[in-house]
Amino acid sequence: MSKYVKLSAGLLAAWLVFILSASALHLFVNAPNKPPAAFGLAVLAPVIAFLLWFAYSPGFRQFVLSLSPRALTLVQSVRIAGIVFLALATYKILPAYFALSAGWGDIIIGATAPFAALWLANPAHRKRFILWQLLGIADLVNALTLGTLSGVIDPHGISTAAMTVLPMSYIPTFAVPVFLILHIISIAQARRWPRAVLTSTGSQFEPVLQR
């Protein structure tokens, strides 16, 4: 398992260096009338790579499923920093419809992450834990969708160009893929948890492996 720890950490570090370098070179800056191809690739590539690795490598899959769901969920608490989006909307650096939705979504997920990690991350709350993870994914997808379609939603309004340059470009091109992967791992783990059902006496519970 140690090799996967080192390999995963190395890949994350390499991806972060690449993202910061590409952002510094303005590779994610896009013309208003063109689809953000480079930006979209940066967001999706690590998620797709993770899913393929998870699907085709039993060793990596075993390593991933052995991680602590509480720790993975607690990491999501840093998303409370979404308050930055609210500040940028106030100063009209980002459009309000995007910044308020993405910002409040992140704040809510970040603020409730400790609760999800400490109280929901166990078989007794399996469905609620998975629901929380799905809500976290929905928040990220909503933010990406609004940011991508900003030129269509309000072509003459404030653009989301600030999200394509440092320091904000770090969020969608690195943080968002990482958060998505953590949500996916947590859901995959929870699906393997046992669930409790009533015994034949109707008065006690016993664990039953969820297939």
Essential attributes:
211 residues; disordered C terminus
Task: Describe the protein's topology.
Layout: H1 2-24, H2 37-56, H3 58-65, H4 69-75, H5 83-90, H6 96-120, H7 126-148, H8 150-153, H9 170-190, E1 194-198, E2 205-209
Task: Characterise the protein shown here.
This protein has one domain (2-209). Helices cover 66% and strands 5% of the residues. The protein is built from nine helices and two strands, in the order αααααααααββ. The protein has helices at residues 2-24, 37-56, 58-65, 69-75, 83-90, 96-120, 126-148, 150-153, 170-190; strands spanning 194-198, 205-209. It has a two-stranded antiparallel sheet with strand order 1-2. Mean pLDDT is 90; it is low at 197-211.
The mean pLDDT is 90
Main sheet: strand order: 1-2
SS-based class: mainly alpha
- Helices and strands, in order, run as HHHHHHHHHEE
Q: Helix amount, in percent?
A: 55-70%
Radius of gyration from the alpha-carbon trace, in angstroms: 19 Å
**pLDDT < 50 stretches:** 197-211
Q: Major sheet, described briefly?
A: 2 strands, antiparallel
Large-scale geometry? globular
Alpha carbon gap, first and last residue: 25 Å
